Amino acid sequence: MDQAQVSHNLTPQEVETHQSFFEQCAKDYRMLAEKLIRQLAAHLKQPFNEELPLATLNPYEQRSYPQFGEMNKWRYFFHGYHCKFKHTITTQDIEVPLTFGLEFGVLDPYFFAHYIYSTPDYQPLSVNMKSEFADGLIIIEKMLELGLYEKINANTVSHSGVVVTNRDKRKVKVFTSNEFHKLVGI
Fold first, then answer.
1. Cα 183 from Cα 130, distance rounded (Å)
2. What is the 3-state secondary structure (H, E, C) of the chain?
3. CB 3.0 to 4.6 Å from 183: which of 35, 36, 55, 60, for a disulfide?
């Protein structure tokens, strides 16, 4: 790669040129996120609340499982409204949101770009990505503009996220702030 190719961040035009790649990345993200969070619920022997996964996958509210650990070569770490997974061999990294019902493919600019960087199947990247948050934001904004990603509601009032458009759509129940906090225990 020559110097001219590495001197800039990802551009909206590059995202448009590689839109099928970024659409597939979002689909893969969703599939892996759902697989890992369901495996973790089984591993922790926790019931799985399909309306609000954070209601049962929440180590802070007097649950009998740790905030972090390891399962099937994946390290996990609950934080905020997410659970981070990192593969112990490949170092692939993915953050799973727990406040969008069964919509686990919600794309945060930093987390999504980091997932792309860390996924061995995507290497070497066919696009120039230098800044995780900035590149992730450009990807998400351009894919929204192209109609390949869309916004969805979160389980909490006035919150939303972005997911790939071409997917098996799942209804996300929106709770009032009081209902949400009562279910989650915070």
1. 40
2. CCHHHHCCCCCHHHHHHCHHHHHHHHHHHHHHHHHHHHHHHHHCCCCCCCCCHHHCCCCCCCCCCCCEEEECCEEEEEECCEEEEEECCCCCEEEEECCECECCCCCCHHHHHHHHHHCHHHCCCCCCCCCHHHHHHHHHHHHHHCCCEEEEECCECCCEEEEECCCCCCCCCCECHHHHHHHHCC
3. 55
The count of C-alpha atoms lying within 13 angstroms of the C-alpha of 76, restricted to the half-sphere facing its C-beta, is: 24
Judge contact between 106 and 83, C-beta under 8 A.
Answer: no
C-alpha dihedral sign at 75, 90, 22, 4: positive
Cα separation, 94 vs 98, in Å, equals: 13
pLDDT digits over 108-167, tens only? 999 999 999 999 999 999 898 888 899 999 999 999 999 999 999 999 998 999 999 999
Q: What is the dihedral of CA 100, 144, 23, 75, to 10 degrees?
A: -40
Position 150, amino acid: E
pTM listed for this prediction: 0.92
Task: Specify whether the backbone of 144 is left (phi greater than 0), alpha (psi in -120 to 50) or beta.
Answer: alpha
